[in-house]
Design brief:
The complex is a heterodimer of chains A (410) and B (230).
Chain A (H helix, E strand, L loop, with lengths): L3 H13 L2 H38 L4 E11 L2 E5 L7 H10 L3 E16 L2 E10 L3 H4 L4 E4 L4 H5 L4 E4 L1 H7 L9 E4 L2 E9 L14 E5 H8 L11 E6 L2 H18 L10 E5 H44 L1 H9 L4 H37 L8 H28 L2 H6 L2
Parallel strand pairs in A: 4-9, 6-8
Antiparallel strand pairs in A: 1-2, 1-10, 1-11, 3-4, 3-7, 3-10, 5-8, 6-9, 7-8
Chain B lengths: L4 E12 L2 E13 L4 E5 L6 H8 L7 E6 L2 E2 L5 H11 E4 L11 H12 L3 H14 L15 H12 L6 E5 L7 H16 L4 E5 L2 H4 L4 E6 L2 E6 L5
Parallel strand pairs in B: 3-8, 3-9, 6-7, 7-8
Antiparallel strand pairs in B: 1-2, 1-4, 4-5, 9-10
Helix pairs in contact in B: 3-4, 3-5, 4-5, 5-6
The chains are: A alpha+beta (410), B alpha/beta (230).
């Protein structure tokens, strides 16, 4: 019986004897492993990106929007009606436990003019707690305070995109801009948040006091008291679900909705949206990886093909080894190991190439690079399995050869 | 001590389509330890079949065969492999060296299958190559060696596990006359040192170098000369 060391040495020598053929045979596995590794890394990167952009909206966030009906997790026609009011927001803050902050907001589109530049953006009328609810920070200057909010002062806090476009070379704080016919003072700049999960630029925004926006920007929209959304921050992840239920119950009561009637508002829980998005991207990743795995299968068939050729070519060697005392098991292990060494070497090279490809791709499309030890181990495990599965038949054929016949063969 | 080989009424038949071929049709003989003998006969006489059966490459269909105390008909596949490894040393007409291995590595091969440790293997292979006169060519590959030198490597390999019996199948068939004489002289020396050697050949000149000649024809022994002298 051959010792493992001799077995490996024998297999390695046989593969080195024909380097070009060994390399080409391994190429199938290399491509297979590389594409699986790259695709899984890419999928995970996308998953991470979706997660972080959803988290960037604010943690433990519950958002209430008017109208809309909810059907199995799908939102239909949301924002179609104006049923939410500032009073609703105040009631939520007052009556529901487990809430860190509540921020009603009035969204409106508007043209900003200043420094000779026109910029169309989203104007959000909010109250000061909005920043806390959305986990947003001020990069420069300050947020307006409660007094300014109450007095409906004409002040704005701009998002980074607006600043970049309107004041590329000027200190923005203290600048005046025109908005819907009024002159506003820029008092602060928001920290950059980047794109949202849906590809929207979150920094293309201007925040102004809620009452200012309602009176001067969106004055004709609905009743004076309505808002386009209420953002609520729960105190903890555990509290989110309960807050969501309590808000629903409270608003149904306030809006006098009878039992059996549909809500005239929608309460969205960002955590559950995150979970759904996670699931979707994970499924997608699995799908892509499975498609890539097909090339691994093709690589395995390549190995089997070459091993069969090799067994035929080396019939005399097999006959000789048997005459010298090699048992069937020795021959089986020798050729099986050749296939495994070949596919594992392909796996290692494929892992390196796949990692480089993943790095290049994630850099190119600006995704986080997530390459775990587990990816490497799974890739190597799979390539070893390919070697065992596709090397087994050729090795078995070799082991079955009759030494007399084999020695007679030229 | 019992004889090394005891063959009694050995039969080996092959089926070839409809026909049954009697490659060995009842062969009986004994070979003592330390013998130096030849089996001769024309092609188709059954001498190759006899060699395969003696070497444990093939199992007899009938009769009794004991080699070095082992009942050859009772051995299974892996038993035969172990038997070939430890009891038999093969020498072939076409040398059958592995081209990618050095002379030393080729001689080590049977010891690898015996599970001998690396250091012992090296030392013994080295010693055997010196014994056959190739001490200076241990690192050479077969293609860098002449036919005679290749056959010497093969003989060293046959001796690797200290076999009870060296079986040589037309060992000089691929060699010129001068080299043939050298190889036969080497066999003579090894026999003098105690090795039991059986040559299978169709050349009377080669057979004449041994002390006993069994002549076969149509699967049977037709002459057995010099047995007494052994």
């Amino acid at each position: 019986m051959m010792t493992p060391g001799d077995l490996v040495a024998t297999a390695a020598r046989a593969l080195r004897g024909n380097p070009l053929r060994s390399a080409l045979t391994a190429l199938g596995v290399i491509i297979g492993v590389a594409s699986v590794v790259a695709m899984v890394a890419l999928g995970r990167g996308a998953q991470e990106r979706v997660q972080s952009s959803i988290a960037s909206l604010g943690s433990n966030l519950v958002i209430v929007v008017p109208g809309a009906q909810r059907s199995g997790g799908v939102f239909l026609a949301q924002g179609a009606t104006n049923t939410l009011t500032v009073a609703d927001a105040e009631a939520i803050a007052r009556e529901i436990d487990g809430i860190a902050a509540v921020a009603p907001s009035q969204r409106s589109g508007a043209q900003l003019v200043g420094q000779g530049v026109n910029w169309n953006t989203r104007v959000e009328g909010v109250t000061p707690p909005y920043l806390e609810v959305r986990d947003w920070k001020i990069a420069q200057g300050r947020m307006f305070d409660d007094r300014e909010a109450r007095q409906a002062r004409k002040v704005v806090v701009l998002g980074q995109t607006v600043v970049d476009n309107m004041f590329p070379n000027v200190e923005p704080i203290g600048q005046r801009i025109r908005l819907s016919g009024g002159a506003y003072e820029v008092i602060g700049v928001l920290e950059s948040k980047g794109q949202s999960g849906m590809g929207q630029d979150q920094d293309d925004i201007a925040l102004a006091p809620l009452q200012t926006v309602k009176r001067r920007v969106a004055g004709r929209q609905g009743r004076a008291d309505t808002v386009t959304s209420i953002s609520i921050k729960a105190v903890s992840e555990e509290a989110v679900e309960r807050v969501q239920e309590d808000v629903t119950a409270l608003l149904r009561q306030r809006h006098r909705i009878q039992e059996g009637e549909a809500d005239d508002f929608t309460v969205q829980n960002l955590n559950s949206i995150a979970a759904t998005a996670q699931e979707t991207t994970a499924t997608f990743t699995t799908l892509i990886a499975a498609i890539s795995a097909v090339s691994l299968l093709v690589g395995g068939i390549g190995i089997m093909n070459i091993m069969l050729v090799s067994v035929t070519e080396r019939t005399r060697e097999i006959g000789l080894r048997k005459a010298l005392g090699a048992r069937k098991g020795d021959i089986l292990r020798q050729f099986g190991l050749e296939a495994v060494v070949l596919s594992c070497a392909g796996g290692v090279v494929g892992l390196v190439i796949g990692s480089l490809a993943a790095w290049g791709l994630t850099t190119a499309i600006d995704l986080p690079l997530l390459l775990g030890l587990d990816t490497g181990l799974i890739a190597l495990g799979f390539s070893a399995a390919v070697g065992v599965i596709f090397g087994a038949y050729p090795a078995w054929r070799a082991a079955q050869l009759d030494p007399i016949e084999a020695l007679r063969r030229e | 001590m019992a004889a090394l080989i005891e063959a009694h009424d050995l039969v080996k038949t092959y089926r070839m389509g409809e026909e049954t071929i009697h490659a060995l049709a009842g062969v009986s003989f004994t070979v003592e330890r330390g013998a130096y003998m030849a089996i001769i006969g024309p092609s188709g006489s059954g001498k190759s079949t006899l060699m395969n059966v003696l070497g444990g490459l093939d199992k007899p269909s009938g009769g009794a065969l004991t080699i070095d105390g082992a009942d050859m008909r009772a051995l299974d596949d892996s038993g035969l492999a172990a038997f070939r490894n430890r009891t038999i040393g093969f020498v072939f007409q076409s040398f059958n060296l592995l081209p990618r291995l050095t002379a030393l590595q080729n001689v080590e091969l049977p010891m690898i299958y015996a599970g001998t440790d690396r250091r012992t293997r090296r030392e013994r292979a080295s010693m055997l190559l010196e014994r056959v006169g190739l001490g200076a060519r241990k690192g050479h590959r077969p293609t860098q060696l002449s036919g005679g030198q290749q056959q010497r490597v093969a003989i060293a390999r046959a001796l690797a596990n200290g076999p009870a019996l060296v079986l040589a199948d037309e060992p000089t068939g691929a060699l010129d006359t001068a080299t043939t004489a050298d190889i036969l002289q080497l066999f003579g020396e090894l026999n003098a040192e105690g090795a039991t050697i059986v040559l299978v050949t169709h050349e009377p000149d080669v057979a004449a170098a041994t002390r006993r000649v069994i002549e076969m024809r149509d699967g049977a022994i037709v002459a057995d000369r010099g047995a007494r002298a052994a």
